[in-house]
Specification:
18 helices; 545 residues; Rossmann fold; 4-stranded mixed beta sheet
Length: 545
């Protein structure tokens, strides 16, 4: 099976906050459970911004690979005017732009945007988890900026969580020291701590703890799926939005035993004989060694604690959070080249790829993703198959199971707006980047709405991305999608005045979001039912629990 994360997820030192002894709060100061924070104050938009607010103690020393610990109180005023450092990661995705000053293991910070003037306003809250394959990303990225949505009446938070070997490393020694809490899901436990912080503190920022929506894209969407089925997260949020991804299909979880075995292998490949040796390593050295290890620690683990069973099993049993759910994926989640590689876009070349990548299943795959002729027909089929096996099926399966086993409203979208041409500066930067790599044949231009391409549209942040020459049509699509999302966060229903009506998923319809946004029949069910059989058989053959 083609591994698509690296090809598709195109979706600086630690900052020490200063302290002053100013006793009386002012409008840009808020008292949290751990002490007073001072943000940037009311901007011209009327939005107050608080950057780099800690939500847990730094996960350093013995707390490396431990559940996040309760935040210690501070005296005086803690400045919240700069983004906290991003969590340890390699620069693996070229489209990520960071406003944080650097990376550090001390990274458990969140950011808040609010237009509320007092706690009495109790505005609906959006907590957004970034994407990046659980190995990269940061809450400071401009595409996740919360000012635009705060102007629309929400309190918006973005949250840092541990990544890669720091966030998803399981090991038998870690399991033994956890007293029944397993090991491996530290990044998800960070998010859980942030959601608990929200419940305890968001009213002080004018938010309503009873109206919290969690949302995210790609790895962020996978995180939302995990919280929806985790018994530890229940009651911490009232609605959920997933943009491209769940823990079903390609992006599945692994058993604790398998995750421990892999972690032991990773430790050996890094040259460490014990957990104490690994904890003694400098963070940058650990990051370097983990990056060179052939094995990887990036899987979500069925640890018996945060996840008591496979997410699909929990959804089938109906024990997930029964809340309104809105999810969808993009028309170009996968690109033809992700599947075809160097194979020519001919029927023969396509069939040969299917035979190699889907042994024993190739004829049935071709029946569901047919190509009648060379060229465009092959490219279209390969794009559909690459996108579905990567993330399209995964997203649908989550929604399907949640709808079948629950009574809460569910909504499904297909984002179809392709990005416009690059701006002059964006094209120049892309050309310079391409010149640094040896060409491996002509690369086809992106087809459809690529993976992560909806983020700026949904969050109203097109102006923050100068790579593309956004048009009035793009701004209209953004306004439409943003309004659907804002309505859903406020009420659990995306519909509102001036918008095309979005039917619930139970009606067999989904919203196709583009310049002519409209409700259309869900036409992918047959091929997704086939993929359901395929992934179940593959999982059984691999012995994954």
């Amino acid at each position: 099976m083609v591994r698509l994360w690296a090809g598709l997820l195109l979706s600086a030192g630690m900052i020490q906050s200063g302290y002053t002894q100013v006793p009386m709060p002012s409008p840009d100061r808020v008292m949290t459970g751990a002490g007073l924070v001072e943000g940037l104050g009311s901007q011209a938009s009327g939005v107050r911004e608080f950057r780099g607010v800690p939500y847990a103690n730094p996960p350093l020393g013995a707390l490396r690979w431990a559940a996040p610990q309760a935040l210690r109180r501070w005296s005086g005023v803690r400045q919240a005017r700069q983004f906290g450092p991003r969590c340890m990661q390699q620069p693996v995705f070229s489209d990520m732009v960071f406003r944080s000053a650097g990376i550090a293991e001390d990274c458990l910070y969140l950011n808040i945007w609010t237009a509320a003037k007092s706690p009495a306003e109790r505005l609906p809250v959006l907590v957004y988890f970034y994407g990046g394959g659980l190995i990269a990303g940061d809450s400071s990225e401009p595409r996740y900026d919360g000012e635009n949505l705060a102007r629309a009446g929400l309190v918006v938070l973005t949250v840092n969580y541990r990544l890669g070997v720091f966030g998803f490393f399981a090991h038998p020694e870690l399991t033994r020291e956890s007293h029944g809490q397993g090991s491996g899901n530290y990044g998800l436990l960070d998010q859980l701590a942030a959601l608990r912080w929200v419940q305890a503190n968001i009213e002080a920022f004018g938010g309503d703890p009873a109206r919290v929506t969690i949302a995210g894209e790609s790895a962020g969407s996978i995180s939302v799926c995990a919280h929806m089925v985790s018994p530890l997260s229940k009651g911490l949020f009232a609605r959920a939005i997933g943009e491209s991804g769940s823990l079903i299909g390609t992006l599945r979880t692994v058993s604790l035993a398998a995750s421990e075995k892999n972690g032991t292998l990773v430790a050996a490949q890094m040259g460490s004989k014990s957990l104490s040796e690994l904890r003694a390593l400098r963070a940058d050295r650990l990051l370097e060694l983990a990056g060179k290890a052939p094995a990887r620690s990036t899987d979500v683990t069925v640890d018996g604690y945060f996840l008591p069973a496979l997410p699909a099993q929990l959804l089938k049993a109906g024990v997930q959070a029964h809340i309104p759910l809105l999810v969808g994926s993009n028309t170009g989640e996968g690109q033809p080249g992700n599947l075809l590689g160097k194979a020519p876009p001919t029927v023969g070349g396509y069939r040969a790829v299917l035979k190699r990548e889907f042994p024993g299943w190739d004829d049935e795959v071709f029946a569901h993703y047919p190509a009648a002729s060379d060229g465009e027909a092959v490219l279209a089929a390969a794009q559909d198959l690459a996108g579905d096996t990567f993330i399209g099926y995964s997203t649908w399966a989550w929604l399907q199971l949640a709808t079948t086993s629950g009574a809460s409203p569910t909504y499904y979208y297909e984002f179809a707006r392709a990005r416009p041409a690059m701006s002059a500066s964006g094209a120049a930067a892309a050309a310079a980047a391409a010149a640094k790599t040896a060409p491996d044949g002509a690369e086809l231009p992106p087809r459809g709405a690529v993976h992560s391409g909806e983020i700026e549209y949904a969050l109203g942040n097109l102006p923050g991305n100068g790579v593309y020459a956004w048009t009035d049509e793009d701004r209209l699509v953004s306004r439409t999608m943003r309004e659907y999302f804002v309505n859903f966060v406020k009420s659990g229903d995306p519909n509102g005045a001036g918008l095309v009506r979005w039917p619930q998923f139970r009606t067999g319809m989904r919203m196709r979001i583009d310049i002519d946004s409209r409700a259309v029949p869900v036409t992918v069910t047959t091929r997704y039912r086939f993929l359901e059989r395929y992934f179940a058989a593959r999982q059984s053959a691999e012995g994954t629990k």
